[in-house]
Design brief:
GO terms for molecular function: glutathione dehydrogenase (ascorbate) activity; glutathione transferase activity; methylarsonate reductase activity. By secondary structure, the chain is α+β, with helices and mostly antiparallel strands. It contains 10 helices and 4 strands, in the order βαβαββαααααααα.
């Protein structure tokens, strides 16, 4: 059943082999991207089933009543919500642990992710308008970047995890990838205002896990344009089933 195309209303649920881990995803969903990055970083074998989030299959809503991705399934166990999925994977597959051992450091990182959620909201507003139409949200995006610049500078080592990519890096990265693709804040301008974030943005794509999950910027922008046109094409770029 290898396919990247999304399953929609009326489709049949693909059979899941016993003992195999499946992640229900959407190719361009940053929340799902978090979990895919963790799976890649920890080298966890899995398969991906993409979901049409506008016309969700009935069987998917039975598995996850919230109807959101990512959702994990293995045998009779189902886990959903991106932060929960990522923490679950890090506990169930303890090799290459991604979260700090110290409880305070864990809490600190989770608080950073919570604050970051507002950045995500403002970023969506900016991406769906022009800077002239929504200057307040653009300024809020820049303010969030300044706050995160302070966080990563304090960590030292070039990553939010310090000297290596850790869970917090993977939780934040998908939105920075989108921010660069959409040219909300051009990368060439990051170096002068957010030097530590700029270094991080340049270093993250070098990691094998990020390379495995790398998005196609052209296809991403085509999806954004299709959303703006009210014709959301989750299968953009998949002219042939693959």
């Amino acid at each position: 059943m290898p396919t990247q195309k999304s399953f929609a209303t009326g489709s049949a649920c693909p059979d899941l082999e016993a003992g195999k881990l499946r992640v229900y995803s959407m190719r361009f969903c940053p929340y799902a991207q978090r979990t895919l990055l963790v799976l890649a970083q920890k080298n966890i074998p899995h398969e991906v089933v993409n979901i049409n989030l506008k016309n969700k299959p009935e069987w998917f809503l039975q598995k996850n009543p919230l109807g959101r991705v990512p959702t994990l399934e293995k045998d009779d166990k189902i886990v959903y919500e991106s932060a929960i999925c990522c923490d679950y994977l890090d506990q169930v597959y303890p090799d290459n642990k991604l979260t700090p051992d110290d409880p305070y450091c864990q809490a600190r990182d989770k608080m950073t992710v919570e604050v970051f959620s507002q950045f995500v909201s403002d970023l969506h507003k900016v991406m769906n308008s022009t800077p002239q139409e929504n200057p307040e949200s653009l300024q809020k995006v820049k303010n969030h970047l300044s706050q995160l610049e302070s966080v990563i500078t304090a960590r030292q080592g070039g990553y939010f995890g310090g000297n290596a990519v850790q869970m917090l890096d993977l939780m934040l990265w998908p939105w920075y990838e989108y921010l660069i693709f959409a040219k909300v804040v051009p990368l060439e301008r990051l170096s002068g205002v957010y030097p530590a974030l700029c270094v991080w943005t340049e270093k993250m794509p070098e990691w094998p896990s990020v390379q495995k999950c790398r998005l196609d910027s052209r296809q991403f922008l085509e999806l954004v344009n299709s959303i703006k046109s009210s014709i959301t094409d989750y299968d953009v770029g998949l002219d042939q089933d693959s």
